[in-house]
Amino acid sequence: MPEHGEPILLPPADLAAATRRAEALIPTPYGDFRMIAYAGDAEDYTPHLALVHPEMDPKDDVIVRLHSECITGDLFGSKRCDCGEQLDRALRMVAAGKGIVVYLRQEGRGIGIINKLKAYQLQDQGLDTIQANLHLGLEIDARHYGVAQGILQDLGIRRIQLLTNNPLKVDSFGEGPIEVVRRLPIIVSPGEANRNYLRTKQLDMGHWLK
Ligand SMILES: Nc1nc2c(ncn2[C@@H]2O[C@H](COP(=O)(O)OP(=O)(O)OP(=O)(O)O)[C@@H](O)[C@H]2O)c(=O)[nH]1
Ligand SMILES: [Zn+2]
């Protein structure tokens, strides 16, 4: 076990190995979705989740949101980030546009909730979201999107309209089998608690927030 303060090495994420494990219809305030769980291991308690509109047509340019897990924002409405509002907006857009939300279990940009809470504590001491990860000996962004591409392929999708402000997310599709035909912005108005965070994302992480 690493001593306190030592860098924590995360296991290499073999995310592309996830396969379809179970599915069921989930009625939500946004409408009905087919929820499909994808995991490398059938006993995985945190599988990636695809919420698929019942009339999604894989031959369309499907509206897709790849949403990285944020327990604080998605579940509890934390105002420190924009995730909860983005998820709400994405679910609305996907419900209206017969698309898909892929909920990727990459909490805290892939460092997990324990490290994210430590990073928040450092941010309360004056570090920004990038410096806090680095101070913990962790990557600024440890996420991978290969698994999401595997999920989209499993659903028969070839062309997508991607809901994101993050250039790295668009770039992750590279020359792969899924073509991003359009990027759709998903911008949340800043509030008091997330203003600095959003400014760092825009100025230092290159997010398209204008
Ligand atoms: N390590 C760390 N993770 C954070 C912090 N704030 C939010 N997150 C995580 O960041 C992830 C969301 O990333 P964002 O940069 O907000 O958005 P994105 O998914 O890269 O880009 P969009 O598609 O435009 O939303 C989620 O996994 C959150 O848990 C933070 O201060 N530190
Ligand atoms: Zn968040």
List keywords for this structure.
globular, binds guanosine-5'-triphosphate, Rossmann fold, RibA, zinc ion binding, metal-binding, binds zinc ion, EC 3.5.4.25, GTP-binding, 210 residues, alpha/beta
3D architecture notes:
- The chain is of the alpha/beta class.
- The protein has two domains: 15-106 and 143-204, Rossmann fold (3-Layer(aba) Sandwich), CATH 3.40.50; 111-142, no CATH class.
- The chain is 32% helix and 23% strand.
- The N and C termini lie far apart (43 Å).
- Mean pLDDT is 91; it is low at 5-15.
- Bound molecules: guanosine-5'-triphosphate and zinc ion (ZN).
- Residues 70, 72-73, 81, 83 line the site of zinc ion.
- Residues 21-185 form the GTP cyclohydrolase II domain.
- Its cofactor is Zn(2+).
Map the helices and strands.
Layout: E1 19-28, E2 31-39, E3 48-52, E4 61-68, H1 71-75, H2 83-97, E5 100-104, H3 107-110, H4 112-124, H5 129-135, H6 146-154, E6 159-163, H7 167-171, E7 179-184, H8 195-204
Helix pairs in contact: 4-5
Guanosine-5'-triphosphate binds next to helix 2, helix 3, helix 4 and helix 5.
Domain GTP cyclohydrolase II: 21-185
EC number: 3.5.4.25
Active site: 141, 143
CATH class of the largest domain: Alpha Beta
Major sheet size, sense and barrel closure: 7 strands, mixed
Give the total of beta strands. 7
Indicate the CATH topology of the largest domain.
Rossmann fold
CATH architecture of the largest domain: 3-Layer(aba) Sandwich
